[in-house]
Amino acid sequence: MGFVRLRRAARSGALALAAFSAVGGEASAQKLLDRDKPRTHSANDPYTKGGDPDAVKAAGYVAIGSEAEFDFGPSGQTSKSLGEHLSYLDLYWAETAHFKICVSLPKVKVTGKERDKVRAELTRMQERLPEVDPRARQLDPWLRMHLYAQRMEDHYREVQSFLGVEDAMFAELNGIHPMGQEYLGIGPYMGMQQKYELMVLPSEGSYTDFMRNKIGLTTQTTQFWAYNDRGALSVMTHLDLADVRVDEGLHGHIIHSMTTTLLNGYRHYSYDLPVWVLEGCAHWFERRINPRFNSFTSSEGSSGVRYNKENWSEPVRKGVKSGKLPSFPTMLNRRAYAELELGDHLKSWSLIEFLQAKHPEFLKRYFAVMCSMLDEGSIPDASNMTDVQRAVFKDELGMTYARFDRAWEAWVLADED
Fold first, then answer.
1. Which of 118, 221, 244, 262 has the most other CB atoms within 10 Å of its CB?
2. Neighbours of 244 (CB within 10 A)
3. Comparing C-alpha atoms, which of 306, 198, 196, 154 is closest to residue 243?
4. What is the DSSP string of 136-204?
5. CB atoms within 10 A of CB 317
6. Helix (H, G, I), strand (E, B) or coil at 122
7. Whole-structure pTM over 0.85, yes or no?
């Protein structure tokens, strides 16, 4: 049901100088602990002591390594079958509390401005994986897999906090909505039945191979996909996109994509939410990592927006003063990502900034209501979304759309003083 594509903004030569640089290929990775096993087998993971079951469990994993087998991708596919199809790649697999992950990332050096960020992440990781060196100057493929597993779980908790929910609220859901109770979806993963999935492949060629032969698509850009028969949502991307070979750029791009995915899955992915709020939230989370890197969601067949400015506050202020930014009612009429122009992206991000700063509880209630629209038979139904959205603003903020626009504009201009 539905998908989006995400395009990277073009980068200037100066910004393309990566704080991370790739070094060598898989042959330059750490020495094998067990030469009789593939390098992607947990027996060759130095950070869990060669896949020691106690170390794997203590690190918070359900399973790791190429020998682990779990459902992944289209119905009938598993980590094992996909690994066989992509046998020319070294795929690192992991299942965490809320995610199933497949990454094939090269070894990179830790240099420049990202050193402090990565060191802080590795310091936290060392609490679960004592073999990790927080001062590591290189991130090998196993360590990068562990890093993205940690980042995904971190983001899941951040989105839960953003929405004001926790796992316990969904724990008893097992495929049905209990009649007479608040609608929370039908599964334990914030309303979805299955864990969220992330796939990062090393090249456009391998990505095209997977997408064409397993999904039936010819896209080369990042993809959000719903496996409706399994009740799972997935983000898939590759490293031949602009900026994502820079680890911080890849991190932000995945966060942008996964934010959209988690919000779509909140209380079950039964219909599409308004694009202004999904894209605004995706920008808001991504730009907290590093505002130098910015993703823009587009629809199939759309060229998408490209914008390489780091400072978005200044063009927003100029847009307010000149009256060139779209009005909020105009933004609400954008039904598809292809309709979003640069002004929509800038303003959607700024609106989320405003709401989080001045009305921090509003978005919790907004998403709770917008993701729980039901018909008389308690079946998810978004046919009355326009009226429901208007009512949320009136009931929770006490504002019409025009008044909301004026309040946001006043906040933007006050920030200038």
1. 262
2. 22
3. 306
4. -SEE-HHHHHHHHHHHHHHHHHHHHHHHT--GGGTTT-SSS--TTS----SSTBTTBSS-EEEEEESSH
5. 16
6. helix
7. yes
pLDDT tens sequence across 93-105? 999 999 999 999 9
- DSSP character string of 362-378: HHHHHHHHHT--B-TTS
pLDDT of residue 284: 98
Distance, in Å, from the CA atom of 282 to the CA atom of 57, rounded to the nearest integer, reads: 31
Which residue stretches of 266-400 are H helix? 275-287, 313-322, 328-332, 342-358, 362-370, 385-392
The residue type at 326? P
Q: Which strands sit side by side in the sheet containing 5-8, from one edge to the other?
A: 63-64, 92-95, 99-103, 196-201, 232-238, 222-227, 5-8, 295-298
Contact 147, 139 (CB under 8 A): yes
Contact status, residue 148 vs residue 200, Cβ threshold 8 Å: yes
R_g (Cα) of the chain, nearest Å: 22
Q: How far apart are the first and last CA of the chain?
A: 46
The position carrying tokens 């493929």 is 141
Q: Which two tokens stand for residue 1?
A: 């049901």
- Summarised one tens digit per residue, pLDDT across range 103-118 is 999 999 987 788 999 9
Contact present, 237 and 23 (Cβ < 8 Å): no
Helix axes 313-322, 342-358, angle to 10 degrees: 100
Residue-wise burial string across 323-345, b where 16 or more C-beta atoms lie within 10 A, e elsewhere: eebbebeebbebeebbebeebbb
Give the residues across from 222 on adjacent strands. Answer: 6
